[in-house]
Design a protein that fits this description.
- The chain is built from 4 helices and 3 strands, in the order αβααββα.
- It is α+β, with helices and mostly antiparallel strands.
- Strands 1-3-2 form a 3-stranded antiparallel sheet.
- The longest helix is centred in the middle third of the chain and has 13 residues.
- The radius of gyration is 10 Å and the shape is globular.
Length: 71
């Protein structure tokens, strides 16, 4: 499910480095807030996204590369 979340973030950003609300992305792939938090933690620990404040996220360069490989 984290792959799906990362790909949705990539899609929503148009491949650009834009800040998004993590829960909006989670809702787009059918996740609860709790599931979204778990996936964001996993992706953050893998270096694929950066957390900004309590609810905002930003895809990293590595996350963008991973998304492009997964497409």
């Amino acid at each position: 499910m984290s792959d799906e979340f990362l790909l949705k973030l990539f899609e929503m950003s148009g491949g650009e480095y834009k800040i998004f609300d993590r829960y909006k992305v989670g809702r787009e792939v059918g996740l609860s807030n709790s599931q979204t938090d778990d996936i964001v933690d996993d992706l953050h620990n893998m270096g694929l996204i950066k957390k900004i404040g309590t609810a905002k996220i930003l895809m990293t360069f590595e996350g963008k590369q991973e998304s492009e490989r997964s497409k």
